[in-house]
Design a protein that fits this description.
mainly beta, Archaeosine Trna-guanine Transglycosylase, Chain: A, domain 4, 1 helix, globular, 4-stranded antiparallel sheet, 99 residues, 10 strands
């Protein structure tokens, strides 16, 4: 079992996802400082996100302490979080140029 911080970056305490420091293989288990464990349910490529807790369908994905998207299906702890299960919200606000 590896230390959580050795494999992922948690950008903000509000985040429900963390970023892989290197590729994560399915089945890898990480120990959180508070004694909880997280098992990767699938491979997560370098620089991509892994769910830290359950995110219900339509639920908000939080990174950097900010909303970055909504889950298009339920995302379980340890699953890879990317465009296949998240609809992005960044860059969709007022003032965006049409193109």
């Amino acid at each position: 079992m590896e230390k959580f911080s050795a494999k992922v970056i948690l950008s903000h305490s509000k985040d429900n996802v963390a970023t892989a420091r290197s590729p994560i293989e399915a089945g890898a288990v990480f120990a959180f400082p508070e004694g909880k464990n997280l098992e990767a349910k699938e491979d997560v490529p370098f620089g991509h996100k892994i769910a830290l807790r359950r995110i219900k369908k339509g639920g908000v994905v939080i990174k950097y302490g900010e909303r970055i998207g909504r889950a298009v299906r339920e995302i379980k702890p340890g699953e890879w979080v990317h465009i296949h299960n998240v609809a992005g919200e960044r860059g969709r606000g007022k003032g965006r140029r049409k193109g």
